[in-house]
Structure formats: C-alpha cells, structure tokens
C-alpha cells in the first residue's frame, strides 16, 4: 500500500481559503483584535473564552483550548 502523502499546513490553509471560501485575512484580523490589548502591555499570552493565545512580542504564535494544555502561558 502506498504511503499517505504529507499535507503541509500551508496547503491546508490555501485549501480552506481557495476551495472552501474561508476569508483568512478576516480570521487574522479577528485574532489580532482579540489580543491587541495584551500585546500593547507586553503580555506573553492571553486566556479568553476558553482559549489561550500564546504571544511572542507582537506575534500570535499559537492558539489552543485553555484546559487542553497544562503548560504555563509564559516560559520562565
């Protein structure tokens, strides 16, 4: 049986955008709006509505369900 192809995150994102019709830039803007105050005060993360937004400087580097990852938001 042939191996299953690896599908990159980039390919998934473009499929969602171009085939499924998701407005990726609108999603990006929504995320930015939710974290802008936390970024402005130099936070390394934000817990909101059951999700944790991990921040590095002005970058949102990941989002996960708050209860699904026991790690602290910030590294010491």
Provide an overview of this structure.
With 76 residues, the chain is of the alpha+beta class. It has one domain. Helices cover 36% and strands 22% of the residues. Strands 1-2-3 form a 3-stranded antiparallel beta sheet, with helices on one face. Strand 1 (45-48) and strand 2 form a beta hairpin. The longest helix is centred in the middle third of the chain and has 17 residues, at 24-40.
Summarize the entry for a quick read.
With 76 residues, the protein is of the alpha+beta class. The protein has helices at residues 9-18, 24-40; strands at residues 45-48, 51-56, 59-65.
Structural class computed from helices and strand pairing: alpha+beta
Number of domains: 1
**Shape label:** extended
Helix content: 25-40%
Low-confidence stretches: none
Distance between the first and last residues' Cα:
47 Å
How many β-strand stretches? Answer: 3
Count of individual helical segments? 2
β-sheet strand percentage: 15-25%
Strand arrangement within the widest β-sheet reads 1-2-3
């Amino acid at each position: 049986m042939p191996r299953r192809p690896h599908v990159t995150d980039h390919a998934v994102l473009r499929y969602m955008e171009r085939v499924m019709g998701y407005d990726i830039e609108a999603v990006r803007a929504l995320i930015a709006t939710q974290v802008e105050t936390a970024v402005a005060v130099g936070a390394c993360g934000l817990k909101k509505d059951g999700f944790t937004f991990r921040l590095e400087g002005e970058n949102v580097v990941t989002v996960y369900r708050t209860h699904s990852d026991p790690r602290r938001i910030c590294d010491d």
